[in-house]
Write a structure and sequence with these properties.
globular, alpha/beta, FAD/NAD(P)-binding domain, 425 residues, 11 helices
Length: 425
């Protein structure tokens, strides 16, 4: 039997699940390529950014993960070019030949061409982003304890979050609870002032959590409002410069902090035909996740726009469950094809969506049976599902420990400004 060379670009939910379903399978040699040497769990990035988890709690090195997996190798590098006629990918760390190429790079922040926002806002897509956000927020609070200018202090203590999806809602809720239970104790110098004087959540829609049910949208709004979050709905952020966020109605919010969760986009890849891209630069694929116009190049996860599923004619939502299921289906299809069996088209099994807002506060929508629930039951379900979804027992145990400390004390001891390679702020 000829060994098939499978190259997987990206070690997120989709890529890792595909690799796991091919591990130790005869006839396949897999090379996972990623620009980081570790996998991380994106749904918990905001807890790293706010000092409730360490980066290591949600991360795990690929090479440790693949110990003992005889047919899996890891390559550190970034994709630069595909040469389809030669079945070759060019990486920042060299070239690889493939029989099957799987693109699972996920997405990156979309700034919609607004250069000032790209330069000045805080994104929330990577572990680096989360650590930078933690450093930045803590440094702003330290600066607020020093300034004697009331206007400057107001700008330092005002935070704007752009994007009312799950990440924006979760960040807003976490910051609002920190303002109420932690910051006042950590920074007694700010007593007598409005600590984090304003937390604004801005979204272009009329409701938060657009993909979720109306009940979840209303519950999230009411819960955040009770925590003191202020809303600017039906408005877009248009610019951010000179310590001011400009909104689409002409209003300005004076602040030094804009957290950007307002959109994502996929990458344009050298070597992919221009007509293979769809909305948001996602790669158009057939029902088997094969990229349009290409025979042995596949796309899975957030970077893919599959239009062959009759239940989702406009493509699937960019959710972890979609990525996991696509990774598994493509892996099983590779095995089927090597057995000269027909591949199976992908059909997404919607298990529902949920978002956490704060302590004992969350919303959840189940698809079958169609059910909405909120409060402690939704909060506990969110914690359980995210805990069991972490890759290793080490990640699960350390995360659960940190969550228990935070739950019973309403606090955590991870608020440290760490700047590798720097001695000055």
């Amino acid at each position: 039997m000829t060994t098939k060379q499978v190259v997987v670009i990206g070690g997120g939910f989709a890529g890792i699940n595909l690799v796991r379903h091919l591990e130790n399978k005869t006839g396949f040699r897999i090379t996972l390529v990623d620009q980081n040497n570790y996998n991380f769990f994106p749904p918990l990035l905001y807890q790293v950014a706010t000092g409730f988890l360490e980066a290591s709690n949600i991360s795990y090195p690929f090479r440790k993960m693949f110990q003992g997996k005889k047919n899996i190798r890891f390559r550190l590098g970034a994709l630069q070019k595909i040469i389809p006629e030669e079945n070759t990918v060019i990486l920042s760390s060299g070239a690889l030949r493939y029989d099957y190429l799987v693109l699972a790079m996920g997405t990156e922040s979309n700034y919609f061409g607004m250069e000032n926002i790209r330069k000045n806002a805080i994104p929330m897509k990577t572990v680096n982003d989360a650590l930078m956000m933690r450093n930045y927020l803590l440094q702003q609070l330290e600066s607020a304890t020093l300034t004697t200018d009331p206007e400057e202090k107001e700008k330092l203590l005002t935070i704007v979050i752009a994007g009312g999806g799950p990440t924006g809602v979760e960040v807003s809720g976490m910051l609002a609870e920190m303002r109420k239970f932690i910051i006042r104790k950590d920074y007694p110098e700010l007593s007598g002032t409005r600590i984090m004087s304003h937390i604004y959540l801005v979204d272009g829609g009329s409701q938060l959590l657009k993909p979720m049910s109306k009940a979840s949208q209303e519950d999230a709004y009411e819960t955040l409002a009770a925590l003191g979050v202020e809303f600017r709905l039906n408005l877009h952020v248009k610019d951010f410069q000179n310590d001011a966020v400009l909104l689409s109605n002409g209003d300005q919010i004076k602040t030094k902090t804009l957290i950007w969760t307002a959109g994502v986009t996929s990458r344009i890849i050298n070597g992919i035909p221009p007509d293979a891209y769809g909305k948001g630069d996602r790669l158009l694929t057939d029902a088997f996740n094969r990229v349009k116009g290409m025979d042995n190049v596949y796309a899975i996860g957030d970077a893919c726009l599959l239009t062959g599923d009759p239940q989702f004619p406009e493509g699937h939502p960019q959710l972890a469950q979609v990525a996991l299921q696509q990774g598994k289906n493509v892996a099983l299809n590779f095995i089927r094809m090597e057995r000269n069996e027909p591949p199976a088209p992908f059909h997404y099994k919607d298990k529902g969506t949920m978002a956490i807002i704060g302590r004992n506060k969350a919303v959840a929508d189940l698809s079958k049976p169609r059910l909405h629930f909120r409060g402690f039951p939704a909060w506990f379900a969110w914690l359980f599902i995210h805990l069991v979804s972490l890759l290793t027992y080490r990640n699960k145990i350390t995360t659960m420990y940190n969550w228990m400390i935070a739950y019973f004390t309403r606090d955590q001891a991870l608020r440290m400004i760490i700047r590798p390679g720097k001695t000055e702020p």
